[in-house]
Write a structure and sequence with these properties.
By secondary structure, the chain is of the alpha/beta class. It has helices spanning 15-20, 25-34, 49-55, 80-93, 113-130, 142-151, 167-175, 192-200, 230-241, 245-260, and strands spanning 9-13, 38-42, 62-66, 98-105, 134-139, 159-160, 179-182, 206-208. The chain is built from ten helices and eight strands. It has an eight-stranded parallel sheet. Helix 6 runs parallel beside helix 7 (167-175).
Length: 262
């Protein structure tokens, strides 16, 4: 059996969601620490940053991002204005490396396209004011993101999380300085266009993620996901890029450090 590789990066996971699914977070975090894994715990709503900051303050290899995803437009957590105010208060108190995940979702309508775009624009303004990069959620909204990239200037690098978009969007995002982060679906045999994009964009713009507890890679597809499944995504990624695993790991860590501004 191969030894678990060290120095992996998981650029996007949701530890509170993992906790709700029954994962033992101290065990997961200890295991990550043992193999020098780093990554970003990503927020899903306006109010969770304080809780996450307290829970993970003893784990410096866990960075935090915070934002309101398009699901916030259903207003189950309050009006958009109320949620945005809450997010701004949290961001004034606690440190984050990025605003996210934020974005657009045409698969789930949530509160509708107009509200989603309003929520996204408000958080893009917050990111600009704080000089923070963004982490984008895109589900079946390629054309809207292409329009966004063509009309907005991003002064800091961002991430297209769990990239499953078109070639046009991929190369435009790279041209705008963004990273494309690929998750478990990269390992699915049917995703040939995604694998083509992964193999052909500049390797300096690639990140990898689990999106835990979602989107488990082969060979654990269908089971709750964890950052410890990063190994499977890395091995497929190195194969698709025609790189030795160690060299691929070094490149992804370099990309991640550049994203963080280290």
């Amino acid at each position: 059996m191969n030894e678990y590789p060290k120095h992996l990066i998981d650029s996007h996971f949701h530890l509170l969601s993992m906790k709700r699914k029954g994962f033992n977070l101290p065990d997961i975090l200890f295991a990550m620490q043992q193999v020098d894994m780093q990554g970003i715990d990503v927020g899903l709503d306006a109010k969770d940053l304080g809780q996450r900051s307290e829970l993970f303050k003893e784990y410096p290899f866990i960075r935090l991002a915070s934002g309101i995803g398009p699901w916030g437009t259903d207003e189950s957590e309050g009006s958009l204005d109320k949620q945005i105010r809450e997010l701004e208060l949290q961001l004034a108190t606690y440190e984050v490396v990025a605003i996210g995940e934020i974005g657009l979702d045409n698969y789930h309508t949530y509160g509708g396209a107009e509200k989603q775009e309003r929520l996204l624009e408000a958080q893009l303004d917050i990111a600009k004011n704080l000089n923070k990069p963004v982490i984008f959620h895109n589900r079946e909204a390629d054309e809207q993101f292409i329009t966004l990239f063509n009309r907005r200037i991003f002064s800091t690098r961002g991430i297209m999380h769990c990239f499953q978009g078109s070639k046009e969007l991929a190369f435009l995002a790279v041209d705008k300085g963004f990273y494309l982060s690929f998750a478990g679906p990269l390992t699915y045999k049917a995703n040939q266009q995604m694998q083509y994009i992964f193999a052909h964009i500049p390797v300096e713009h690639i990140l990898l993620e689990t999106d835990s507890p979602y989107l488990s890679p082969v060979p654990v597809r269908g089971k709750p996901n964890s950052p410890l499944n990063m190994e499977h995504i890395y091995r497929v990624g190195a194969l698709l890029r025609g790189m030795e695993l160690d060299a691929f790991i070094d490149q992804i860590r370099k990309n991640y450090n550049q994203f963080l501004g280290l």
